[in-house]
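Here's what a typical entry looks like (F-box domain-containing protein):
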Amino acid sequence: MIIQQFSPELLTEIFGNLYINDLLVCALVNRKWSANAMRILWKCPIQLATFPLKNTKSPQEKLCSIISTIVKCLSIEVKNKLRNVYGIIIDETKNESVPMFDYCLFMEKLNFVIMFKATLFWLNSMGCVTGLIYHHIIFQEICNLVIIKSNILNNQQRDTNKMTEAKIVLSAYNPKQMLEGEICNRNYKESDFPLPSHLPLMTQTLSRLERVTLNTCIQPRFIYDLNNICRNVLDISIHCGCNDDQHLADFINNQEKLQKIVLFSFKSDIRLEKISKAIKNKLEQLLSLNISAGQVPLEIFNNKQCNQLIELHLVDCDQSLTKLSDWNQFLCCNDTSFKNLKKLELQCNIKNLEKIGTFLQKVSSSLRKLILIRNNPEDQILIDKFYKNVAKYSSNLIQLDLTIPEFIESLIIILPSCKKLEYLNLRDPCNQPNDLNERFPLIGKYFPLSLKKFGVEFDLNVSKENIEEFLNNCFNIGIRKLSLGFYFMDFTLDHEIIMRRHVQLGTLSSEFYEYWIKEQKEGNMIYDENLTVQDKEKDYWFDFIRECM
């Protein structure tokens, strides 16, 4: 088949497997190719600002280009209003300023905060249009345009048994509180995003909001305004609610389609009674819950049928408000069910999880991912007893994530039971010594044949002899195409020769290894003292945009 005869559907299928830089090259071939490339690139155009493209533009400049293009997509009616009513006379608002494609048709995700900040960058870059009023007007018209034209919500199917990715997102914080550190201040008066009532032109657009993230305590008026507009939020993340308990509780109660809640307060010594009651009211419809146990008491689960819940994360804070009896009641309660729970994360002291075997038995048929993190060093006898309880009900696990024990022999208690395990990850040892570097070969003898990736979340200092013995053990028990999720502090040519040999033998995945060896040699560039100021600034903006996304 001649390449020019490829159908749009086939081009879209091919282009969907290309990298961003390659797509940009394809967009220069002809109009047909350009349309198909842009359909992919503009699904979430903000990624173009974070990706290191083959040009010299900074992330801010890329954001400005994106906003300029979107403004050109505004209707003639809106452009006339911007010029004649508000006096915004710029090239982009001229009727003849029309882009090659109606790019907003392709968008599948809208982040209000990123769009708000990007609009400000764009206005400041021109210098001729400044002021809060102009900023708010153009921002509202852009958001309305994207919602009306795009396929963000059109024909979007909602499966109540499957978590739906939120497409319309708002992430706000109080900048004063950020500057003061993680300390709540009742005198806060602002957020980094306008009050919803100050954006009257986009009330209908805001009403379609699907994910709300509050990274600090926000002024009560902000929550009150949002509560009067939004009823379709799927995902709520609250990273401090201690000064706004009632408003946040009302906001949670009013979301009819709520699927996911994340809640942590910086003040770990207080209970969030009203928010806890609101969460309890929504518990039987939630698919994911991530809370600080104690701030939200575990008794909210009493007599609840949590059979929609797919993910459960419980974190016990340093100043724990949860007693041993509270944990025992939660783990052993027969009146609570979790029939579809697939992922469980528990972060607390081992002694609080003495009855974990009882809970795991209840969810063993559905549970696939288990994350167990210790807050503090623990007695070896307690750890081994704890692991024995876990091992009894691990046969269906696909992913296991653990704080590394002091002695590797403790892991041997669990691994033989995990017949289907594909991902094993060892976490930071929480200020407790461990013998992983010395006993590294031993763990390779007990991996299940199903294992695909083995990760360690701290750098290792393993001798080449131990690496070779570890890989030999993996090969001898039948491990093939393994990926490693860790790096070595001292990595020599001898290490590389050993690992390449096991790539050839098939022990290690060749696809993984080519990426891994590059990262191992280069290290993490963000900590390079030789980086220029411009490079560091780019890193900052990449992090900022990714966080908002």
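The CA atoms of residues 172 and 300 lie 28 Å apart.

More examples are in the samples folder.
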